[in-house]
Structures are given as structure tokens and as C-alpha cells.
């Protein structure tokens, strides 16, 4: 039984969720392959691999391409006389938008965690048995109300992520010295622009949302990765928030990491969790950079609209703490938040410059349906009445707000592209960002943004991870500059 995983794009960050699913299936004797719609020719993959199951992994912005890909899959199945083919979708989109099951006429969708679900589904499909009653699976004709729910309580019981499927799909990335590790699942926070509040409500009856692997299990995987996927020069901990507070898990991690692993690492943090104690332990263990977003430079917007629970004082102190221990910082600011103006956007850029974030980036608010922030915008009349989620929308697409003209939306996008550059220029030059924002040079500004981000990533956030071969370095930089806007005709 062959399973083809299809995702939108592949770059530096391994799609750990897909790699775990592949590991579970391979452990049970099934064959898997990974296809990226932006990197590969889907038709060639289908012809060469001839899958029995096609599994789409999709976030909401990916759906437009997934629908195109599905047509190619169905045409291939018809031409190749594939009488028995199962099409399933997992990931964030089907979890929060189960209507995609009927919309695309899929055979099933996976809602939430899929390691146990996909194994049971594949076994039943191979045996010709119905798919009803599998935890976290909704088969064709089913609905979420009748779905059995499950959270995997013992994360140590899962196999390590299957990195072979990743490097087979994108060999160039094996030359990167960065490897991703996930130590936990679940997020205890409820930011309004995120779906987490809906996920917590959906699965709260199944037990603790936040779960963590043992330190021993995490270290075993890291040691395996170092041995089997050289040369590893840095670890990226991919948890939503790596350290919440100092407890037994954290104490054991900090006591053992330097002795047993001794590699520099990057992790995600929140300002309210980066105390002097945690920063000191992180630095001593080998942390050289952290991702710590604030999203808005306005305390009122950050806390009343986004519900981040972060005062200006807490944010400022956390970045001072990082600087005290020579930990580089990376983070994002959201422009175009419902109820804000271009003046607020500039204040966000100024604030991120003021706190001396090492590698700041900016995006535009994306009105994902069913999030509290989108509902807030609709309720307060900030959007036009014809607001609908465009399947091609992304974090660089200005939203049509009632209080903004087309020209102002162009300026907002220019702020996104110019923000990273002006955050590292002297303050006396900063007013020039307003002048440049009026010019229709978004393509040039985009290249400037990507160049600044790639350089800062390489120097500060992920130092030493780029390939040592000059030709491969050129290839890597080319991909880094263009992969976000790659427009490829699917075949």
C-alpha cells in the first residue's frame, strides 16, 4: 500500500506533522512519498509512484492549489484505470473547516492529530473495510458531530519523524545544518488571530491539551538525527512556546543538554516567559536565538484586540533580558489589524526598532474565517460587506478595510517590505520610509526585504547553517528570495 503526501511548499522548516505520519506508516510496512506542489511535477510523481492513497496536508491559504492538484489526481486515476484510490486531507484547514470534505468530494478528512488515525484508516482501506468510527476521521457522508475524538497522551510512544521522506523530496536541504525537533503539543494561550481557542474547545474533553515528550525521548531523537543526517550544526525547537515556566522538565533539559547534545539551538518564546532565570539557563545550555513576536506596537491593540496579555513593560524588559545574555531575537509584527490605521502600522515598526529586535519581520492581517479577530472585524464593521476569504490570500495581501483606500493599501504593503530594512537603519533616516511607501516599487521592496531577512537569518538567527559549497549557497539564496511568491503552473 503506497501513500503519497502532498503539501504546498518545502523550505528550511521540516513539515514535522507529515514526517511523523510517514514514520508511523513505514513502521507498519507501508510505503510513503512526499510531493511539494511548488517544487515538483505532480503528474510525474503520480505516474512514477502510483499511490493507493493521496493525503493532502493543508492550511487554509493552500486550498486553491490543493483543489487544482486534486483535479490532476482524479484525471490521473481515470487515465491509469486506478479503480481503488482514496483521497484524504489533514492539517489545519480540514480541522477547522470540515466542510472541505463535501466541497472537494474527498473520501475522508482528518481532524486534529492523525498518527493513530491514519494507520487505522490505511489498514481498513487495504482490507476493504468501512472507515466509520476511526478517531479523528470523518469519512464521506459523515460529520464532525458524530466523530470520535482523540488526543495522543503519550508522545513518547510515537516513532521519530521520518526525515528520509523530506530529504528525498528536497535533497538540497540536507546540506543545511539545521534540524527541527518538536518536544510538545498544545498551546495554553488564546490569541484572537489564531485558531487555538477553537482547537482547545474542540478537544478539551479528551484530556490535557498541552503535553510534552520526556527529555530522554527528545535527546534520543536529537542524537539519532546527528548520527544519521550529518552535518547538524544547529537545532530548531519547533514548539509553539518552548519554555513556559521553570519546572522538572525544564530543569532536566537544562542540566543535560550542554553535556549530551552541545549544539546551539533556536526556540520560540513569549515575552512573559523570558525571565532572567530562563534567559540565563537558555544561554548556558546553548540557545543563541529565539523567536519572540509581539504582533502590535500598541499595548491597547496587543491586549484588548489580540489578547496577547503583554504590556509594553513586559515586552521591553524581555528584549533587554535577551540582549543581556547575548541571545538574538526574531519576531513578527502584524499590520492592518481591524480597527487600526497606517499610523498604528508605523508605530508597530517603530516599537520593534525601539526594542532592538535583531531580525524583525512584518505581515498583513489575514482574515481567516472563524477566528475571533475576524469575527471582531465583522461585528464592528471594519470590512466591506462583500468580505470573503480569497483562496489565494496570504500574509502579504492587503485586506480591503472600509477606512483604507487603494493607495493606502499599497503603502501598507510597502511598509511590510521596507520595515525590516528601516529597523536596522539610524533613526534620522526612519522618516524616509513614509516617502518611499508612496512609490509603486513593491517588487523591488520585496527583494530588499527578503535580502535583509536572509542575511540576518544567516548571521544571527541561524548562523552557520547554510551549505559550505558556494554553488549550493547561491541555490539556497535564490530559493530563499523567491519561494514565498513562487507561481507555478501545476502539471
Overall description:
- This protein is an alpha/beta fold.
- The protein has two domains: 2-146, Cobalamin-binding domain (Rossmann fold), CATH 3.40.50.280; 177-465, Alpha-Beta Barrel (TIM Barrel).
- It has 19 helices and 14 strands.
- Strands 2-1-3-4-5-6 form a six-stranded mixed beta sheet, sandwiched between helices. Strands 7-10-11-12-13-14 form a six-stranded parallel beta sheet. It has a two-stranded antiparallel sheet with strand order 8-9.
- Helix 1 (16-27) packs across helix 6 (115-127), helix 14 (342-354) runs parallel beside helix 16 and helix 18 crosses helix 19.
- The chain is globular, with a radius of gyration of 23 Å.
